[in-house]
Amino acid sequence: MTLSEKAAIVLEAVEQGFIHEDGIIRWAESASAAVEKPEPWLIKLALLTSSNITDYTRILRGQSAESVPLHWRVQMVALAHQSGLLNLHDCLPKLFNILIFDPKEAQEDSLDKQLHSALVEWEGQGGLEVIEISLANNFERLFREYLADAGEVTAIARAAGIISTAGTLGAANQP
Fold this sequence. Notes:
The chain is mostly helical. 65% of the residues lie in helices and 0% in strands. It has 9 helices and no strands. α2 crosses α3 (40-47). It starts with a helix and ends in a 15-residue tail after the last helix. Mean pLDDT is 84; it is low at 165-175.
């Protein structure tokens, strides 16, 4: 994964509400420390002291890949759910938006198609507060499958402090 793709994932996480200013700084510091000669924009991001999120997103937008692959976008939401940041009921509208309303990447693999079908079934039930147990179990299974190869997205989430090294909700984001 390129630095530009990582920046795009961080930007997507900001837009989804998973990362705030302090998480962006932690990620930028971590990414800078991981290379011998960090990019100037990454250093600027790590040293930024603004309390305005748009100052951070402006830098990220200028360096981000054009779009984040669908699979990574879904992994981010599944990771937020697994980490306790989002409950299942809050995940589903985000996923519905990613897969159905705003599919920035048109290619869907078989796992994406299964999730798409499950989301259509959920929406067909009226997006109810109480999700049928078999459907909830199906979502949980799909999330596990997405997260089976989410190493790089997970690393970004850890660096940003969204999840701890144990895979639980990071201290910076706990209520």
